[in-house]
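// run 5 | inverse folding | seed 20
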């Protein structure tokens, strides 16, 4: 039997987990399992096939909508996006036939409608990544860094291998594509895990969103999912009560 989490939703919600375009579903599967263990069904799609050729945003949103149209969603539906999926959550919500109750950003960028990834990062970062590309494709996410962060952030050997194997080689063009010009005016919340996303968490708090901060790391949804699931459910409970 799962532990009771203070403030968690009183009735089951359906959580649609959206992985980063630079990672695969293995990066969120342990979190999905943890949410399900607390009585909240979790749906985790594999969006990797839609991020390997431009125009990535158009193909990605179409693939998401097609996949979700095959699913039977019950009760309150929320979207939970990690990392690079965060800026796309409003567009994903807009693409769904079902009504989305709220969005939760987990160590993720906030929406920047109409702006590209390149527009939101230091110029030298884009230049460095472009220089690492081969035949128009970026290296897998964990190869952007030296040393490889997976060795430090994911303790389980098999899971670490799955995350590394799943990471797609995303086109450089994706970094320059304007993000969908879709806004979100509904309930939203934020779960912060690592220092690089502290400014996003601060911005979320400034918008009046419920925010939970964990002293953890960016891949905690895979490596240490229980505290992350607790924070997500506490944020969702606050969103649903406010709604």
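// decoded
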């Amino acid at each position: 039997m799962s532990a009771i989490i203070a403030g968690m939703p009183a009735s089951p919600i359906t959580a649609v987990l959206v992985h980063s375009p630079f990672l695969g579903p293995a990066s969120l599967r342990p979190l999905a399992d943890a949410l399900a263990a607390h009585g909240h069904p979790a749906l985790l799609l594999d969006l990797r096939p839609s991020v390997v050729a431009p125009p990535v945003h158009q193909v990605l949103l179409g693939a998401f909508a097609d996949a979700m149209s095959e699913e039977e969603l019950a009760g309150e539906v929320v979207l939970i996006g990690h990392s690079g999926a965060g800026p796309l959550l409003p567009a994903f919500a807009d693409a769904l036939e079902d009504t989305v109750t709220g969005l939760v950003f987990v160590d993720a960028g906030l929406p920047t409608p109409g702006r590209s990834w390149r527009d939101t990062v230091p110029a030298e970062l884009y230049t460095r990544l472009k220089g690492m590309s081969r035949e128009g494709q970026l290296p897998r996410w964990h190869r952007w860094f030296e040393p490889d962060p997976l060795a430090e952030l994911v303790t389980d050997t098999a899971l670490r291998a799955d995350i590394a194997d799943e990471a797609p080689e995303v086109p450089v063009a994706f970094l320059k594509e304007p993000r969908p010009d879709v806004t979100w005016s509904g309930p939203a919340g934020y779960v912060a895990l690592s220092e690089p996303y502290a400014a996003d968490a601060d911005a979320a708090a400034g918008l009046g969103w419920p925010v939970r901060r964990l002293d953890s790391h960016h891949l905690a949804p895979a490596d240490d999912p229980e505290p992350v699931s607790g924070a997500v459910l506490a944020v969702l409970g606050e969103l649903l009560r406010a709604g």
